[in-house]
């Protein structure tokens, strides 16, 4: 049966010079020399130069641990499907299968200690089993998806498997991929006498000086369809490939790893019998050609036996080394280039035939030969005895896509997908420059894809861009093809933004994590694992984070390690709140365990007495309360809650979260006795309200608000940012108003920082959080007016404090002497406030 190759993509060293390298007989290796038995000869391929994690929906963390072989196949699958116009053919994609040939990355064998500490995500991203299914998942391909391996003949085994699925009509298209990445190649390989690898560091198939092969790196993806279907659907057919013949040697050989003459002869004979084509029609044979003495000698013997005529042979391993699981697909890539450009290349590094070849009817060109060449046979043999043979044939009825372009009256939309709008000009220019340098054939293919296959999604945001005029350019399909190409690739007329920016800001200053607070550290982990900046996800619900489950497992594990906790994974995935709420929940215990900021004045409290809990003002200190509550503490347990020093770096803390911390601290000390009085001066009153709101009504006796501003005083639609200079100015005004403040240590850097943190909490308070609670409250209101300059500097509205009235079941106002700041700084006024508090504790609020 005949099949059509309707798409291809590859990564190889010096990829842009592939044809020239073959025609000139260039070996693309890097040879650094020898060190005893270590040979530093390798083929340099950097997969990560092609693979953009964000484009394919991976986080940098996932990409970092993923096998480069997997990354290469994902990228090449996208490139082939996109370049040849299949990404929008959803019905065909639904009947597309994936067969890959990938082995375990040799980095696992080079670092055996890594296995014992291997995380689940590392495991799942490096085992060969997941190579094919990653492709199916990324491109919604719903046919069979498997990975196969038969050592050096793996890619032919994969191709055979895909052809069987196509032949049985289980699928209508197959993605066939194979990849080999030789990790740590620049460290060299160990030469072993009699082994497969060359002591010289050069692969010289069939040469008198041949002494083995060199490990190479390369990756390939082909799109395969039944030939009749490809013709019917007007696919671009790059070549015809016959059904692969595959067998195994069995045990008819000297050892398990040795090749078998009989096995190789049988697989070749089987191919021509099954496919019913004459061997005399073969113009060239691409051998397995490993340049080992035994392997080459056996292969030329089987070729002579099965063809019985003069035949030109070669081996691409001389140009790119031995690609192991991917070696067969490299041979097919070479064959397609040869039949479509009509040439036969020389073997790189070749000088003189080995004695075994000299007397055989096999031609080995030392220079490039021109065609005609229509059919190329290919051998692929694997250690363990699985052999393969196939023929690739030129397709002569290829359509002229230039004519197709000319025949269409459609606008061409050329989308550039980017997640950062600001990058559009530079990105567009980069792509434009690269496309200008591509061949006419590739330009026509892109135009064909844009015209025939790409359809912009509904509701897409399209931006016009022209480097010269900043106006939209519309290109008509009836224009002359050469002009069309020049226009479309000298200017980029259509630019598409597909989503908001998701990558982390790489240019920002990184916080030193050793000095960062716990919340910052947890957030950094979340950003790292999700590849999303905090501002993009802090308000999202946990179940809205689109990250693979094995990455979430790793994230939870790292959070547990950081906090020395054991948060169950189920707790994370079943959490119904927002991500910022989740982070606070997991770090909260870090700040609630010690409770060193809880102070009970006048010794141990007596359980028979009622508890009064007073929360700190914005400055965080509670020492003036000791003077204020001196008389009160004779009959009540007075509990003072100051601002915990460890929270000084928690700049994103909310009042609700701070209240949760204080509630937990007080419960840990058993200081809620079921009928507690809550209160505080200024900001302390706001905290008392928030705590009361969270507690059962029957547990709170009443609320004491000591000249506290209503929340509406701080909540503003204005975007004024309170600067460090503003706070310094406010402090200066306070000291001028009360010089004693400047003589004490109360206005120090910590106090100023805490003041700013708490003030910013008030500014961020959400109006929807203000609600009525079913308890009594007393407001002790200063008689003297507020300092307007301080209010203006700190963007505080001089709101009537009677607004508190609407938030309680019963509410009472007691006017007290002094102004807002003097009642907490001047001893005589502090004591006076304490007297007012004591006199009203037992008075029922009317």
Automatic annotation (TrEMBL):
SMART domains from the UniProt entry: PKS_KS
InterPro entries: AB_hydrolase_fold, Ketoacyl_synth_AS, Ketoacyl_synth_C, Ketoacyl_synth_N, PKS_Beta-ketoAc_synthase_dom, PKS_NRPS_Biosynth_Enz, Thioesterase, Thiolase-like
Listed SUPFAM superfamilies: alpha/beta-Hydrolases, Thiolase-like
Lineage: Bacteria, Bacillati, Bacillota, Bacilli, Bacillales
Keyword presence, Zinc: no
Name of the protein: Ketosynthase family 3 (KS3) domain-containing protein
Keywords: Phosphopantetheine, Phosphoprotein, Transferase
Species, as recorded: Siminovitchia terrae
Residue ranges of every copy of the Ketosynthase family 3 (KS3) domain listed in the record: 1-394
CDD domains per the UniProt record, alphabetical: PKS
Xref: Gene3D superfamilies: 3.40.47.10, alpha/beta hydrolase
Family: Belongs to the thiolase-like superfamily. Beta-ketoacyl-ACP synthases family.
């Amino acid at each position: 049966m005949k099949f059509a190759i309707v798409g291809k993509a590859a990564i190889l060293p010096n990829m842009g010079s592939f044809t020239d390298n073959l025609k000139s007989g260039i070996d693309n290796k890097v040879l650094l020399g020898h060190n005893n038995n270590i040979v530093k000869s390798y083929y340099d391929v950097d997969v990560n130069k092609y693979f953009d994690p964000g484009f394919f929906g991976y986080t940098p963390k996932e990409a970092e641990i993923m096998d480069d072989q997997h990354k290469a196949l994902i990228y090449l699958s996208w490139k082939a499907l996109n370049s040849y116009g299949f990404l929008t053919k959803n019905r065909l994609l639904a009947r597309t299968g994936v067969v890959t040939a990938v082995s375990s990355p040799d980095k696992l064998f080079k670092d055996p200690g890594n296995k014992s500490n291997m995380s689940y995500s590392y495991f799942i991203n490096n085992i060969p089993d997941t190579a094919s299914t990653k492709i199916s998942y990324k491109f919604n391909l719903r046919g069979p998806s498997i990975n196969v391996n038969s050592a050096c003949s793996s890619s032919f085994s994969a191709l055979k498997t895909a052809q069987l699925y196509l032949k049985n009509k289980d699928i209508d298209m197959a993605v066939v991929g194979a990849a080999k990445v030789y990790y740590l190649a620049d460290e060299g390989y160990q030469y072993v006498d009699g082994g497969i690898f060359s002591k010289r560091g050069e692969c010289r198939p069939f040469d008198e000086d041949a002494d083995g092969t060199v490990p190479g790196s390369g990756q390939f993806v082909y799109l395969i369809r039944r030939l009749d279907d490809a013709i019917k659907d007007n696919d671009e057919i790059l070549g015809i490939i016959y059904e692969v013949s595959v067998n195994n040697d069995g045990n008819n050989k000297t050892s398990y790893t040795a090749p078998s003459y009989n096995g190789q002869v049988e697989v070749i004979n089987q191919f021509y019998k099954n496919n019913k084509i004459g061997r005399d029609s073969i113009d060239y044979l691409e051998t397995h050609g490993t340049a080992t003495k035994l392997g080459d000698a056996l292969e030329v013997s089987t070729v002579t036996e099965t063809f019985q005529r003069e035949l030109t042979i070669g081996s691409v391993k001389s140009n790119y080394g031995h690609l192991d699981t991917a070696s067969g697909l490299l041979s097919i890539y070479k064959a397609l280039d040869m039949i479509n450009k009509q040439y036969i290349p020389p073997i790189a590094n070749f000088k003189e035939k080995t004695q075994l070849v000299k007397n055989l009817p096999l031609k080995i060109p030392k220079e490039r030969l021109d065609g005609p060449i229509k059919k190329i046979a290919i051998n692929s043999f694997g250690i363990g005895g699985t052999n393969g043979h196939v023929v690739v044939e030129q397709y002569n009825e290829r359509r002229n896509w230039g004519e197709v372009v000319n025949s269409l009256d459609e606008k061409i939309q050329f989308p550039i997908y980017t997640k950062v709008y600001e990058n559009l000009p530079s990105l567009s220019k980069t792509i434009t420059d690269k496309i200008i340098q591509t061949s006419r054939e590739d330009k026509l293919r892109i135009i064909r894809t844009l015209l025939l296959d790409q359809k912009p999604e509904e509701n897409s945001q399209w931006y016009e861009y022209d480097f010269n005029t900043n106006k939209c350019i519309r290109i008509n399909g009836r224009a002359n093809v050469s002009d069309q190409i020049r226009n479309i690739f000298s200017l980029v007329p259509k630019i598409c933004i597909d989503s908001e920016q998701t990558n982390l800001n790489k240019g920002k200053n990184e916080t030193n994590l050793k000095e960062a607070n716990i919340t910052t550290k947890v957030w950094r982990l979340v950003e790292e694992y999700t590849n999303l900046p905090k501002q993009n996800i802090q308000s999202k619900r946990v179940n809205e984070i689109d990250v693979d489950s094995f990455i979430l497992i790793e994230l939870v594990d790292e959070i547990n390690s950081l906090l020395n906790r054991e948060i169950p994974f189920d707790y994370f995935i079943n959490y119904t709140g927002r991500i910022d709420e989740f982070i606070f929940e997991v770090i909260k215990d870090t700040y609630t365990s010690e409770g060193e900021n809880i102070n009970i004045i006048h010794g141990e409290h007596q359980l028979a007495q009622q508890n009064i809990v007073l929360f700190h003002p914005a400055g965080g200190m509670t020492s003036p309360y000791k003077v204020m509550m001196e008389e009160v503490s004779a009959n009540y347990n007075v509990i003072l809650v100051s601002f915990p020093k460890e929270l000084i770096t928690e700049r994103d803390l909310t009042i609700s979260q701070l209240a949760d911390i204080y509630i937990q601290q007080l419960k840990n000390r058993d200081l809620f006795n079921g009928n507690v009085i809550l209160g505080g001066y200024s900001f302390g009153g706001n905290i008392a309200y928030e705590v009361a709101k969270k507690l059962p009504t029957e547990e709170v006796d009443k609320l004491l608000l000591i000249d506290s501003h209503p929340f509406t005083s701080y909540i503003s639609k204005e975007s004024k940012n309170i600067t460090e200079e503003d706070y310094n100015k406010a402090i200066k005004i306070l000291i001028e108003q009360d010089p004693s403040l400047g003589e004490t240590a109360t206005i120090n850097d910590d106090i100023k920082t805490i003041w700013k943190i708490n003030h910013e909490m008030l500014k961020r308070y959400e109006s929807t959080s203000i609600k009525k609670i079913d308890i009594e409250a007393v407001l002790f209101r200063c008689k003297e007016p507020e300092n307007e300059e301080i209010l203006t500097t700190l963007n505080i509205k001089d709101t009537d404090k009677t607004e508190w009235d609407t938030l309680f079941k019963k509410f009472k106002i007691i006017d007290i002497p002094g102004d807002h700041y003097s009642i907490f700084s001047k001893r005589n006024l502090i004591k006076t406030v304490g007297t007012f508090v004591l006199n009203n504790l037992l008075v029922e609020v009317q």
